Amino acid sequence: MLSYIAFFKGKMKFINDVIGEELKLFEARFSDAVKSHTTLLDTIMKYIIKRKGKQLRPMFVFLSARLHGPVNDSTYRAAALVEMLHTATLVHDDVVDESMERRGFFSINAVWKNKIAVLVGDYLLSKGLLLSTENNDFEHLRILSDAVRQMSEGELLQIEKTRKLNIDEAVYFEIIKNKTASLLSSACGVGAYSTTQDAEACNRMKLFGEKTGIAFQIKDDLFDYGTDDIGKPTGNDIKEKKMTLPLIYALNHTDKKTMREMVYIVKNNNRDKKKVQFVIDAVTDAGGIKYAQEKMIQYRDEALEILNVYPESPVSNALRGLVRFTTDRKF
Fold this sequence. Notes:
- It is a single chain.
- The longest helix is centred in the middle third of the chain and has 28 residues, at 169-196.
- The chain has a two-stranded antiparallel ribbon with strand order 1-2.
- By secondary structure, it is mainly α.
- It has 15 helices and two strands.
């Protein structure tokens, strides 16, 4: 875990050069914002804060804000709201998925059981609502509430389609646009709005965040199949019957016999390592990896193109670097 953190910090040095002070102050403000008078809740909040992830979304909030003007109190509240909602969804996801780990540590439900984990997620959601309403940040709340709606719809659509493994490419993109990209889209939009109160700037940055988020998710899909510089394939998505882009492409571009065998394995033999490896090899042979990489680069480049309307600066360059990091990362 320490090597992971050191690697990430090294890669993110260009971000710290631009918004390092804002991120440092944000950490203190966020810790303050989630404090509770209830001892158990406060203990759990400290546990969450100590094990926080890369904080990519707050980075996108601050850079999107700085792209349009100086960071202000509204920006800090926007970043806190994004992080609260994101953390709440992760806590709830771990309960739904019965996951015992999060970022290399025990999940909240693993330590304190499901009932407390659900209530912790609810607490974070309510704190986010209060933070916005008490400061009249109603546009922040509208933007982020829409993201939570999309995330829920995306998750439910994925569950519905996974049962029959009948996800085509159009449905796949609808799922990841809602489930993954919507929150990053909203983070960029709310960041821009916090320093402009301008709907056009907000919508432009939301589109930028959406395309970046889609590229980010396709990169996650590719991790399941491994590459020479990432390591051995995990096959975790196959074990969970997730229809990712490489698999969807392969099922539509292989012979019928192989396609039927792949579907049968995903449905019935997804815990058999040799069978899972057969699917991974079939996806590679059918060009699924190459196709997914091409689509990822397409969305990445479309996101970068949106930034071309802004003059070159340390902030716009940092945003470009952050976008490239989402597709170049090794974890």
